[in-house]
Amino acid sequence: MPLTSRNCIMWIRLFKTLYLIGCTSVMCAVLPLSAAPTRDPAAKGNDCVACHKSEMPLPSKHPSTKTNKLSDCMDCHEKGTDDTVITKIPGSHLHQLAGVTCADCHGSSGASGSKLKPVAVEMDKCLTCHGSGAKVAAMTAHVKPQNPHVSAHYNTDLDCNVCHHQHTKSENFCVECHKFEFKVP
Question: Can the peptide bond before residue 145 be classed as cis, meaning omega within 30 degrees of 0?
């Protein structure tokens, strides 16, 4: 694997996490911390059971999501509130609820029934829908104390995937060194 700033950051994070949880053996690095849901490219964003099976991620009294779109979720989980769905579920779920399929980002390898391993999604693919780095930065210009999409280190060019993870919880990369309390969707 060629050494890039992106995979270097991923390795640093992995070893930092392992150290923080007290793992000092190589076996810790290969044993899963918990069972992950299966990934089903044919699953709809509102069909939790398709991937999570019997491990329902929603509270038992939560209304059915079978017919929901992202806008339906936002009726109760408004952006900017503590109960927002935007920062609580992986980006892939948000995309699915908004009508963006696996294949839309991963190409035919992400299509239903494909036996191919899905290809990694590069930042350019994100920008085809979300606009240029400068456009994304303009949309978050109001964020205090610092616009998360304008950096003294990377300007507007930091790869989206460093903070915005699609199949795991997103993270605030800036907090590695700074005290910025961004809520990352």
Answer: yes
